[in-house]
Amino acid sequence: MSGLDLSSPELLEVARVLARATGLSLASGLLRTLRNSLTIAAEELRLTPMDLARKVIAGDPEGVAILIEHAVVGETYFYRHPEQIAALVARLGERDEPLRIWTAGCASGEEPYSIAMALLDAGRAGRADRIVATDVSERALRTAVAGVYSAWSLRRMPAHVRAGYLDGEGRWRVSEEARALVEFRRQNLVADPAPPGPFDAVLCRNVLIYFEPPTAAELLYKLSAALAPGGYLVLSPVELPLASALDLQWIEGGGATLLRRAG
After folding, report:
1. pLDDT attached to residue 188
2. Sheet arrangement for strand 100-104
3. pTM of the full structure
4. Strand arrangement, sheet containing 148-150
5. Which CATH code for domain 82-260?
């Protein structure tokens, strides 16, 4: 890819455009991802990577939009960090009122569906629980709404959950019962307001690590502000140190750490 090595001025400027649009970090790992994303997106638009880079730098909406679609990190799978899911459901499962949960940066939907399945597995069918799942990528959200996944996404899912809430072979479809609990919305976590809350739990796992520290700090306050009194913020284990400044109680148990708002 001539002219777009990791120190290319055009690539660095594209990275700055992406950072302004989404808050994603300019770390070298992202630059490598960004370079690959430019190649794939350029092929889709029948452009050279340099031509697409110039469109993005010029602020072309189509160029910026397709770059975001290809550059955002979408690696996920069902029942990621299962100890956190178990701890959260154990603490929320006995509540009488319907639960409201927000999963921020839900990618292709495996996380919110995992929460839905865990709630149903805990006996909360018919309790009117609602999960709002948001992501910046329209492409990922289309996959999430379809609810159809390959075996790779199911690689960590407990066998009894797979048997109870997925149908198919080779390609697996989430059951209507689990799908009914989840509403998907497009949201730029940096630029857009939080969905209407408050929420009994907010999950934002393996997302904040891709933002610059000041942006991550701002997002943490946005996420915690969306909690109802007594609500829980769930971050991935590697992201927990980022939340040390928040006025939240750290709850340990079952190998998981949850952050609880007072009340």
Report:
1. 92
2. 182-186, 130-135, 100-104, 199-203, 227-234, 256-260, 249-253
3. 0.83
4. 148-150, 171-174, 166-169
5. 3.40.50.150
